[in-house]
């Protein structure tokens, strides 16, 4: 019996669905990419706060019944799509969002019922292909590349599951008795330096390394860039500062059709096996986007990233937490309005140092902080320093 091309595409899409419940736990135990999502499990305790994807496992007949209902509903939705739409959706799913794929525009009011709940089509397809535990549209955020980005009411809405990210919900703020870590401050005795970590010891200044680096940050009244990015391997900066002028930037090691800051093209002399291992896991990396409400970071890789930012935490707190962001999740890493209102503690120890609240630190794969052997980010194999233009 011959199958039509559309039916073949539908079957391939169903086979490419995201594992859920007990299947997800088995995948985390057996697959290297999935295992990263449970790596360093203690990161949410004190030293690193994170947004952990939930697991809602079922058993026996209930699981089989739910699977059959989901399959029937998914097939019914997919069979309404045109062949070209099915091909674009399959390309997005099989590339895990690495390829640039078109929007899948479908009627905005075509909700579908699954069990006792009604789901908008974008949420349903995200449940099928990305996050089986997804419940509500408020848990996801559109990427700026999507045609539906910023459109609250429209007859058509994009249902491409890789044009959305999962929102990272921060945990409750810590008690206000801990002190700011000293790595948060910038030394004052480094000529021609830019805001940087003091953890890097002898190389704690972002040495200009040439006129272009210093001009990027010190040109008076320069509004051409909204941030610059420095890539570090442990205590050594690799390559020049990368000036960002476009609203969105991909930072990656290996990304199909990648356009942005490619870390794989930088010349690194670091021979550490750990650095080389982590570098190879950066993969699709992150997407850094300047939006109306601040700067967002989307984790496109298959492994967690770790972020520290002055605007992520309670301004009354005496410590900055390191937040763990899982693959597929987005977090508002920087808030301009909040950064301008933040004040340094009224303490002589800190009045001797300039405020560096316009800097965000991001580590790939490995975290740092109180619950890790790595106390400072300069001990992390591969990390970024994002310095925002506050002019």
UniProtKB/TrEMBL annotation:
Keywords: Cytoplasm, Metal-binding, Nucleus, Transcription, Transcription regulation, Zinc
InterPro entries the record matches: Dwarfin (IPR013790), MAD_homology1_Dwarfin-type (IPR003619), MAD_homology_MH1 (IPR013019), SMAD-like_dom_sf (IPR017855), SMAD_dom_Dwarfin-type (IPR001132), SMAD_FHA_dom_sf (IPR008984), SMAD_MH1_sf (IPR036578)
Domain MH2, first and last residues per copy: 226-391
Domain (MH1): residue spans on this chain: 40-173
Segments traversing the membrane: none
GO biological process: anatomical structure morphogenesis; cell differentiation; regulation of transcription by RNA polymerase II; SMAD protein signal transduction
Pfam families: MH1, MH2
Gene Ontology cellular component terms for the protein in this record: cytoplasm; heteromeric SMAD protein complex
KW Disulfide bond (keyword) present: no
A GO molecular-function annotation: transcription regulator inhibitor activity
Matching CDD domains: MH2_SMAD_7
Top-level division of the source organism's lineage: Eukaryota
Compartment(s) where it occurs, according to its Swiss-Prot or TrEMBL record: Cytoplasm; Nucleus
Keyword Metal-binding on entry: yes
Family according to the record: Belongs to the dwarfin/SMAD family.
Protein name as catalogued: Mothers against decapentaplegic homolog
